[in-house]
Amino acid sequence: MRIKYRLIILLCYLFAAFQVNADEKEPVDYVNCFIGTSNSRWMLGPYAQMPFGMVQIGPDNQGNRWMGGYEYAINSVSAFSHIHAWTMGGLSMMPATADFTIENPGPDSPYKGANAGYHSRILKDTEKASPGYYEVELYDHQVKVAMTATTRCSFQKYIFPDCEDSRVLIDLLFPTEWDYGFSVKDAVIEKISNTRIEGYAKCVSGTWSSWNDWTLYFSIRFSKPFDFFNGWKDTEIIENVGEISGSGEMGAYVTYKTADKEEILVQTGLSLVSMEGARLNLQEEVAEPFGWDFDACVNNARQTWNNLLGKVKVEGGTEQDKCKFYTNLYRAYAGKQTWNDIDGKYRDACENIRQLKPGEAVYGGDAFWNSYWNLNGLWSILSPEIIDNWVTTQLEMYKHTGWTGKGPAGIEYSGIMEGSHEVALMVAAYQKKIRKDGEDIYKAIYKMVTNPGGEHPCGGTYGQIDLDAYIKYGYMPSEINVVSKTLDYAYDDFCVAQLAKALGKKKEAAFLETRSMNYKNVYHPEYKYVCCKDSSGNWDNQFDVFSNVGFIEGNSWQYSWYVPHDIEGLIELIGKDKALERLSEGFEKSRKHNFAAHVFDRTMGQSAEFYINQGNEVNMNSAFIFNYLGKPALCQQYTREILDSFYGDSPYKGWEGDEDEGQMGGWFVMSAMGLFEMDGGVTSASELDITSPLFNKITITLDPRYYTGKEFVIEALNNSPENRYIRSARLNGKLLKNFRIPFSAIANGGKLVLEMGNKPL
Questions:
Q1: 472-477 — which CB contacts under 8 Å span 24+ positions?
Q2: Could you give the CA distance from residue 164 to residue 346 in angstroms, rounded to a whole number?
Q3: pTM confidence score
Q4: pLDDT over 90 for what percent of the chain?
């Protein structure tokens, strides 16, 4: 009897333990894919995708406008498109049952087909999203839609009502972001069988980004044979044909007779290389591993994301803190794309097919403009393979089309944004021992800082525009280009100098390091602010520290802190007391605006008397400058305030600015871990600044393929919202004398212990 009783007790304990384990959240469960989607970009919606996925399939409900794509507050869906890359779009699909109508309402309409025959209202409470998954019920069509993805493929499930004329629409031209979207120059949609459709669309991006042209190949297979293959060109409907071809407004749709709650599954493979590539991607990523098992594909995406997000474990803090942390970490991997096929083939900027080595990948996206503060450091710690592949991308561009790319959307030369800050990523990859091919990297980046940029014969612009003027005058004259380019070019000079130094190229290193001090040439001797100056040396006689004239997405006050490679020299130039007074004033006045740009100009931060702009790249180092001013407690205070109040956890408040493909998310994650990389990690003994961590304990699992350490732990003792100040810091038991640690300490594994208190040290 006693044995039986003990057995019952044991089983109860086991059941209780199982329940605790079952209820425990995994990192992926903390991600809220809807955060900030009422204030986001085309690239960052609640899409089903993999990390750096070519496919980002999900809902669109607005377009052809700044921040077009998905808007949470709009309770409708126009369709579900596959490509949500910067300046790129492609292949929209939509299940439908209402009366079929196609109309062309013109460029000012928020979406094409503004009627129940194409778009649909949605039941908002049925809309769900998680990493790798999205679902919703289409009210006007009575169809439930669910979708997931692999890197290059989508897998959709449509649950139809009892209907004589159920349809799946395939659209090649639809609104995206910006004012002009993209155009289709030539396209074919072909019925291969009654379960497969294939085709391509040759696309050119909008007016201002017309350098970006691509051909999207697609192979689509259906779980149930369709009855008819139809299509449209402009407003003409074409029924029961074998092929639709042409340009501009065109698409196709297949029809079914469906029973109530009948499931139809659709799988799509994409490629920017060839039709064979689309077929191969579909076969090897979806058809072969999953068959028609939709849930297995969903679970694969979930596990992939969970493995990535789980590389950092946080303990302590609130549930809200963890939600914000893992959502921002997710965003850091959700904005860029992989553009090579599964067999390693890709198209270069001149549309030639190239072949990668096994295991390599090429990526694309918006600019590396100041990503060295946020994304680069995060990727190098948690996923050095991403940094490795970024260098591969850049060296492939240099090898085949002559130059590296500052914003290689579609592996092309966008010319966006300022400087050539891919250089920082490449140098840091060598200094952190992620890459060993320093000489190859050096050849590519030395060219960038010694040869003026220009128009690429295959479209777009490459390199440092007006570099010859910068070299001649030692700054960028105001009548030639914006003064802020002086600061960007100076930092790039410094980065290349560090690699030259590491490779023993003393002459080149000394030359470029000296030239990196050119930033001092644009600081007004009296004002001690960055100021426009013409080629004759005349300063701007209408200088206004809050004006944006001569500056890209910022003003003089903001740019005057933008010297990532020489903060000590900058402080000496301004004067330590004056610098502390100015920066403190800027933060105090910016608190009233929640560190965000003016409501009418939130991405630029160029409104009158606007100081700190956490919502855009230029100012994201500002709080950490306090570490160099001997006031680390102010760094800890303000970074905590920004984490707590500037970043939100609702669809309407996520990032009060331009999230820019994970840029702001990267800042949150790094700062929440108490880390920041001021110079971008480009020196041989690069260091990270320390600030107040958001959590009590942070455990980072390191990649053994790149680093010798197993894990790096950051522990904040007595941490709390009130105890946000670091009283002491010990690295592997040794007391630190300043608030910086070497990157090598992370790579080698170890422990950083911070003693926290409610008063500054």
A1: 473/521, 473/535, 474/515, 474/518, 474/521, 475/518, 475/521, 475/522, 475/533, 476/522, 477/533, 477/534, 477/535
A2: 43
A3: 0.94
A4: 82
